Amino acid sequence: MEDSLTRFCTSNLTVQVCQIGMNRFVHSWNAHRIPGRGIPNQLAGTGTPRQITADLLPDATVAADMYDSDMGSSLTRISSFGSDPFLSESRTALFT
């Protein structure tokens, strides 16, 4: 995994495979019956009974800070794994 192109391709493929699994999971979860509540897909068809305010949905940085303070641990915020190896137009032209 030292080569940035290999790292990027591996990361990109892994994300796509995970996305397929997550989509299947979400679809099956939303189609199952919750005892005493109903089926999420059918419940969502009637709309949301109340609006969620923006302060309940913080952006990613604020959410990460909240997690750090609540859990007492730290998250890895910056990672070079999966970064685009084509940092410039000239490098992109070499591979096209």
Automatic annotation (TrEMBL):
Domain of life (superkingdom): Eukaryota
Stated name of the protein: Uncharacterized protein
